[in-house]
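User: Design a sequence. Structure:
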């Protein structure tokens, strides 16, 4: 093969990857589009109908968030801590469940799937009210731990569904080959399975993060006002009469979610070198 043929092949591969990235880029733009008017409100000093753009610009909304009495920093730290904890716990719970449901066929499998989906099939308000009574007896009401646990109720089923679909589409032949070459089960999972399911894990983690980050009703009921999150501040500001402060708070509220979405979209971009190469992994002799 000549150098020209190799260069042409490389160009065609890059062009194909660029074309595949177009739908992802369009999805990212559509996700950011609703934030445009909110962003304009956040920096507007005066914006009256029927003007299409703010007549004056100001950072008053963001300066208001920096004032000590707004409890903005506390709500932001609490929201991030709860969302990250829910995301990690959801993946820890959903990963083995997804493997069991997606990679194996067993009796009563459909019943197990139904049980997993029940928290999102039943109205969440009814589920939360029942959980609230139990949390009061256990001393988990009005605590951050209680809020984390109740956020897992809607987050885990979606994470399980995503990971189950990931493992259902895999045959397990590469892991079997790794075991034949001397890999221990944990080595096969770490070096072979994990790189392959990384996009599915990222999507499941993103969904769990977004579910927890945007929760309002569950946080209010279980947190009882003692656990203040950014979503609660946003709903409170939206019921007021200052769209500038509401816009600034909405922009800050959207930034972590948009950042997480863009990171996951970047991970989902097709890469030629993503598939694991068994010859690059050193197995411990006799570890199987």
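Assistant: Done.
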């Amino acid at each position: 093969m000549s150098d020209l043929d190799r260069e042409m092949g490389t160009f065609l591969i890059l062009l194909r990857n660029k074309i595949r990235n177009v739908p992802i880029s369009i999805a990212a733009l559509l996700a950011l589009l609703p934030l445009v008017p909110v962003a304009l409100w956040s920096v507007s000093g005066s914006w009256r109908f029927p003007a299409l753009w703010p007549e004056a610009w100001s950072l008053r909304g963001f300066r208001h968030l920096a004032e000590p009495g707004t409890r903005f920093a506390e709500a932001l730290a609490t929201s991030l801590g709860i969302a990250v904890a829910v995301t990690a716990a959801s993946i820890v719970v959903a990963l083995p469940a997804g493997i069991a449901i997606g990679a194996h066929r067993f009796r009563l499998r459909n019943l197990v799937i139904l049980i997993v989906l029940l928290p999102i099939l039943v109205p969440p308000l009814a589920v939360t009210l029942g959980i609230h009574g139990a949390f009061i007896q256990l001393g988990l009401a009005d605590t951050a731990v209680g809020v984390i646990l109740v956020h897992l109720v809607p987050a885990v089923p979606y994470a399980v569904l995503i990971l189950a679909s990931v493992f259902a589409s895999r045959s397990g032949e590469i892991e079997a080959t790794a075991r034949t070459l001397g890999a221990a089960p944990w080595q096969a999972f770490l070096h072979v399975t994990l790189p392959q399911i990384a996009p599915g894990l990222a999507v499941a983690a993103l969904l769990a993060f977004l579910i927890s980050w945007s929760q309002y009703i569950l946080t209010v009921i279980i947190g009882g006002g003692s656990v203040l999150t950014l979503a609660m501040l946003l709903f409170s500001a939206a019921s007021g009469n200052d769209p500038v402060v509401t816009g600034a708070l909405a922009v800050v509220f959207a930034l972590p979610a948009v950042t997480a979405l863009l990171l996951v979209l970047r991970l989902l971009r097709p890469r030629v070198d993503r598939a694991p190469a068994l010859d690059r992994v050193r197995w411990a002799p006799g570890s199987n």
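The beta strands are 44-46, 56-57. The two ends are 41 Å apart (CA to CA).
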